[in-house]
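pinning this so it doesn't scroll away 📌
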Amino acid sequence: MDTETVETLCRIDAAFYRAQSESFSQTRKAPWPGWVRCLETIAAAYPDDSRTISLFDLACGNLRFESFLEEALPDISFSLYAIDQCDELVSSARGQAGIVPFDADDDTVERMRSEQGMAPVRYRHLDIMEALRSPSGLASHLAAPSCDVCVAFGFMHHVPTAAYREQVVSSLIAQTRPGGYIIVSFWMFLNDPGMAARARSIHEQALGELGLPPLDDGDYLLGWKGLPGQYRYCHSFSEAEIDCLSAAVSDRAREISRFSSDGRTGDLNFYLVFKVL
């Protein structure tokens, strides 16, 4: 895929989430079943519930994983860091009362935790795709302390090309303390025959409408609620692609678990869990 097409796809996704943040957030309220297995990793890795576990969420969306985490593990204290480029999605979840800047001091965070009954999220706006394409790369823009656990859910399918996807995982490795854990999900929407048929139909229409060349294997432009002109770029992963990605970072992070979950077919998301070396 050439640079111009990559930039166009990034603009399409950014415009989609600006325009449809409210309606998209309304469809993303319930936790994914796969997150239960993710919690098993976290709980097993940090059995001492007297300590605070630091978690970094790349492309956090409407913060539903953070809400799920606190409800599912109420006896564990979390220090939460989150990054996204769509502020509307973030504020729709908790409002500004539940969000503080990255540099908020611990006393402020603890006071808010006590008043609100939940940990505030240290949040920072970042155009992740622009940072990926910058000369210094994504890792140099994250600006959070090294964390015990780093996650990226529902994001990798918006990242064009294998090289940028590897950079995302490499950046998460750099953001995780040695011995910490990374959990990443990969959407496999072509596993659902109905979704696959709709994707292929809408994709061809969108390519013509937007004047784009054919995209790489697995790349699609998907519609949204039948609305005209509302498209988002998404990649449906194959397990072979995920194998290659895992192998590419194996000198820095060891894969310790992989599993499929979610969706009507129970296999629309594929999860990788790494332990950082």
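📌 and the second one:
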Amino acid sequence: MTGVADLSAELEPTLTGAGVPAKPLVVIPLEHWRGAPPSQIAQAARLVTAGVLAGPPAPTLAPLIEASTLTLAASSTTQVTGSLGRAIVPVGDLDCDLGDAITRLRDAVAHSPRAAVACGQLVRQTSALAPVSGVGTTAALAAEAATYSVLLGGPEFSRWLGERGAPRRAARAPAEPVRVDRDNGRLSIVLDDPARRNAFSARMREALLDATMLAEADDRIDSVELRGAGPAFCSGGDLDEFGTAEDFVAAYMVRLARAPWRAIDRIAAKVTVYAHGACIGAGTEIAAYAGRVVATPDAYFALPEVRMGLVPGAGGSVSVPRRIGRWRAAWLMLTGDRLPAPAALRWGLADEVSGSGSRHRRGA
């Protein structure tokens, strides 16, 4: 059995001369560290640390599971209850085995090591600052905006821009990217750029901010429904606008000050998101702020920003961990994997899956 001293050495972070993490990911067979003291366990927070469980977790492993970035577990461990359950990523929900899951995580972290380490640290910070809706949201979003803005100037994002090539707008954006209708106390908000799968542009952000501020300001509005027109709820940030920021400090200020998700957070109790098709990036992040998320069976959720050399920038480092825990949120962010509607329901990213003649509610 490996000793505690070996655990300490393995968790010691090092950088190359270019400031790249030399060992961004450490995979830990948790049973080997059953006797590790708290002082050594705390070092797990300094890297992206992935625990691996081949069987049910022993109570003595709880501190290390909680300290790790995430813990992958065989499907036989998915019945873990309580707060520890959210700290475990059951590979049965990932449609793979432990070996495949570890490989996917290694490859993802190796592709964007700076963004991966930054993401792991960010979700720890935002989860501590803003554990529940309405608490600490502004401070947590400031941490997200700062991390995102720094990474905009990094080599991993620059590489992604180069690989993507020149912007290729497929369709003209509509004059009004958000449609708002009111029926007495009900406000309907529709992201309305179906030809571009409701790509979340700066104009759409401003229009959504106006709509959500109306819902917040008028106490006669007691229910808000947010939908997306066309084949997808929201396909994420408008890729044609990525890489256009020249002033990263200004980008930070805009990201923090012009955030419709802050308003949604303040009125979450009366907001229902109806998610269908692709819910990518901002589509997942914004939906997670709602008090209720109803997904169609074809809906899927994904957070691809780390592969782009970034971190979630539409409030997802706050909203997603609140719903599913920072550990499962870290898996989605680090790997960019799609989470289909049934798994989203089990994890808590959706509250109901409804459509095609069937309906499933969380906890039912």
